[in-house]
Design a protein that fits this description.
234 residues; alpha/beta; Rossmann fold; OB fold (Dihydrolipoamide Acetyltransferase, E2P); five-stranded antiparallel sheet; 30% helix; 32% strand; disordered C terminus
Length: 234
């Protein structure tokens, strides 16, 4: 896939340098070049962008402050001359943080990370794993290890036999990345791997030590899917 990206920086030299780097990468498609957060905001309203190279120190509105205004931001790689913003950048769950002057080698490492992220999270990609952002880094999650997922406001908790991982995402976005035939949604706030279900008792699904509720409105559909899949363990 082509990753549609935007460069945002108030310095002409920095914009030109990044543009030259982008043009060297065959999986990047430059969709726009902006001088500040205001023009970037307009561009994001007009088209779907996958990745933003975002400077921090800019007139009118800093990159970090602008990012906080977005409810569903694209993937972001910060580009800045100031190392002191690193902690704030990672708190905003950005993909990477590039310090100016940016070498092509460091740029390539960052965009390869972006490609890996998008390749593993494409719907229907057939991959046996996906990447999620946890504690300011990308974590690889094997799909066959997922027990269930739980929506928690703006976050999703993913449970495996070994750990619980919390990521900034919606349950809907997770559902789009997972194979339909392996998962069911017994409740608006839960997604369950059918082959991990031990038993169903009343409106409760038992998965090892965990219990997941089944909505009374969805129970009939859930039971039908489990029976038809023949994945419910005796």
């Amino acid at each position: 896939m082509k990753i549609k990206c935007v460069i945002t920086d108030d310095e002409p030299v920095a914009r030109k340098g990044l543009q030259g780097y982008v043009e060297k990468i065959d999986f990047l498609e430059l969709a726009g070049v902006c001088e500040g957060a205001i023009s970037l905001n307009s561009l994001l309203q007009s088209m779907q962008i996958d990745l933003v190279f975002l400077d921090i120190e800019m007139p009118q509105l800093r990159g970090t402050d602008f990012l906080k205004t977005l409810s569903n931001p694209p993937l972001v790689i910060f580009t800045t001359a100031y190392e002191r913003y690193a902690v704030e950048g990672f708190e905003l769950d950005v993909l990477d943080y590039l310090l100016k002057p940016i070498s092509f080698e460091r740029f390539l490492k960052a965009v390869n990370k972006a490609r890996q992220y998008f390749d593993s999270n494409q719907h229907g990609s057939g991959s046996d794993y996906l990447y999620i952002k946890v504690n300011h880094k990308l974590e690889k999650v094997m799909i066959d290890e997922i027990l269930f997922a739980e929506a928690m406001e703006n976050y999703v908790a993913i449970y495996t036999p070994h750990q619980k991982m919390v990521t900034l995402a919606t349950l809907k976005s997770l559902i789009e990345k997972l194979p339909d035939q392996k998962f069911i949604q017994p409740h608006k706030s839960y997604l369950v791997a059918t082959d991990k279900i031990n038993s169903i008792e009343g409106n409760i699904i038992h998965i090892g030590k965990y219990q997941v509720p089944v909505s009374k409105y969805l129970k009939e559909n859930v039971m039908e899917k489990i029976v038809n899949s023949r994945l419910l363990r005796k």
